[in-house]
Amino acid sequence: MEHNMILVKPDVSNQERYVEAISTDLLESGYEIVAVRYKQLSSKEFEDHFICKNSQHLAYMTSGPIAAILYRGHSAVGFGRSYKFQFRKQHSTDKLKNILHSTEPGNEFAAQFELFFSNLNITDYHQFADQGVCLDELNEVQPRELPNLASFNLIAANNEEASSPQFRRISSLKNCRYVGYRERIHTNMELLRYRRKTDLGAGDMPEVRVLLLHDLQEYSQRIRHLKETHEVQGVVCYRPKFTLLETETLRTAILENNLLCVGGSFGEGLPGSIRASQELADMFDAHFERN
């Protein structure tokens, strides 16, 4: 079950009406509304949890309370993204003072969930799956957290580690969807080569190749080049170490190159601390079905 948030921006005269209309649309579309909260943000809260574009943006977003609607259902993230543009089109405003925002998976969801629903445990309100758990970066405690994830993909440091008893034991968990191994292609970047669990030790088998960047400098040119030279199909975008601005900028470059945005904790937090959406898991499944 995937969760997402829609944020209704400050509007003294229309906000209640908008919240009611959005809630009705969510229910009619088959989604369950988990909670609704209104919160007046301070300047610091807004700058810490959103990408602040300029002083006018800051003034607008702190001019009144924001209504946060937490809802759940199949592909809640994808629905929110398309619904956002549909609703904005129906209720035309200027570019800065648009009515609502749908959170993106990963870093943004985690930051804004904590801001509006600090009384709820985020592990109970996941978006879908941790798309990257690297075996060699798990500490002693983290493997015990894996069975609690909705699902996850397990990655070995190399082919040798993928044959280890520990890797086979963890990958045998029912909620482990895909497995893979890392391949260093540059000082500051690796390929994550995802395969079906049954295909990991085989030769020429279908795989999803995902780029893992350790340095974000000049990444847009690298992404374009590596897409062609290494047949890259996705890039790790949602990662605990990236700021919201870095995530948004990287995500833009990824989508401009028609690639998947992948997420994962990658040893930088508890498994599942950065989760990808149902739509991403669906894309993984569709790719392997085609091949």
UniProtKB/TrEMBL annotation:
Signal peptide span: none
Organism of origin: Pseudovibrio ascidiaceicola
Residues of the Nucleoside diphosphate kinase-like domain: 1-124
Keywords: Kinase, Transferase
Sequence similarity: Belongs to the NDK family.
Gene Ontology molecular function: kinase activity
PROSITE patterns, alphabetized: NDPK_LIKE
Gene3D superfamilies, sorted: Nucleoside diphosphate kinase-like domain
InterPro entries: NDK-like_dom, NDK-like_dom_sf
Protein name stated in the entry: Nucleoside diphosphate kinase
Entry-linked SMART domains: NDK
